[in-house]
Protein: Molybdopterin-binding protein
Organism: Bradyrhizobium zhengyangense
Amino acid sequence: MAKRSFLIPGVDKRLLIKDSLKVMPDLTRRRFIAGGASIGALTLLTGCDVVDSSSADALLAKVSKFNDAVQDFIFNPDALAPTFPESAITKPFPFNAYYDLDDAPDVSAADWKLEVRGLVDNKKSWTLDELYKLPQFTQITRHICVEGWSAIGSWTGTPLRDFLKLVGADTRAKYVWFQCADKDGYNSPLDMRTALHPQTQMTFKYANEILPRAYGFPMKIRVPTKLGFKNPKYVVSMEVTNDYKGGYWEDQGYNSFSGS
């Protein structure tokens, strides 16, 4: 059999391998490197034949999907993210978005309601005053950004799993999908096991004050077991669903699981 050639028009093989390594889980990455990281190895791992730029993108998407599956498999729903004392809080806690703070959603508390859709018994919309009456708890946890920085903050709100129980959500469903008030229609899915994690929170306060606009007023979803982009802000609706609806960053190639 003739030796196969991996000359790929328009594709830098070294960069493709480097990008693939970025989206592999640690164990897979170590085995892939130990086995001799190569285009040939990638095609065996994913089943994708890389012949041009388009198929290279398809390969990266498949590696990312593989990564999601591995992380989901090894996820321990009982393992807690580290918590910290008040003295460790980052001051000031940074604003972070793909736009400037002046362009952040400016939501009216009086007009806002949380829409609840999908596989739930009670689809009523919730006002902010109604949500504020739910039992709330404070956690001091670390926000880890995909860009490489982190910050510790104090977040107060209602465990998402308690709210899902309250509205009669079908917790056998695969996802809770969040839609936000951002002008670009920011949205993000959360796998159900993470949604039911004890630290996943519907957040209404930061540092014991009403959640500032910079951090997602009137409500953000705080998920300390995930990277920062999996913590949607300015949430306007949630949907319990078995359908994978994608997300703002997920549709651009980011891992959907993106957590521990």
About this structure: The longest strand covers residues 150-159. The beta strands are 113-118, 126-127, 137-144, 150-159, 175-180, 187-191, 201-206, 209-210, 220-222, 235-241. Residues 122 and 166 are 8 Å apart (CA to CA). Residues 1-13, 23-57, 66-71 have pLDDT under 50 and may be disordered.
